[in-house]
Write a structure and sequence with these properties.
CATH architecture: Sandwich
Largest sheet: 8 strands, antiparallel
Number of strands: 16
Structural class: mainly beta
Shape: globular
CATH topology: Jelly Rolls
Distance between the termini: 25 Å
Radius of gyration: 15 Å
Number of domains: 1
Amino acid sequence: MSIVWTFDRLTGIGGFDTTIEGAPTLIDTPAGKAVLFDGANDVIYVANHPLAGAAAFTVEAVFRPDGGVFEQRWLHLAEADPVNGDAQSPRTLFEIRVVENAWYLDAFTTGPGYNTALVVPEKTFPVGRWYAVQQTFDGKIYRAYVDGVLQAEAPVDYKPQAGGRTSIGMRINKATPFHGAVHSARFTPRALAVSEFAGLPAGL
């Protein structure tokens, strides 16, 4: 069963407690509302780690990068860690790297015994457009995709992550803010085949 978060609101995302910092705003798109982040102060926190306990997973998200600084983290799923802080706890996330008017994907997961980034700087895409990005783990191999096209893969000795929270638009510890918009995210506790990816909504 997949969990879908649609960013057509600023409260109650996914049915969970939601906290806002800065001033993220709702915008209209051909596929409904999305949340726009300013690349400086805007972040949304959701009191849930939607893949807690999953031994395999797929994370899909629809977003529009609008340029800005080089390093931007825009979807951060973190295990709660009252001692060391969520930013350093087991986590799974999407980042981008912006180079002039293009970007490339950085998918990342880390925890006890594993620390893997999937990033290929040579595979760049224009900013200012909507994309569907995906990452999967099938029990052995961790993979990252842009619009269903494989970007990189690597074996990972992944351990299921515990409950925690999620940030959208910025790293959980308020670093590396994102400049752009996020439309939706889907979380599935198994590795989907490319043919099962939701892809871009109609109109985007």
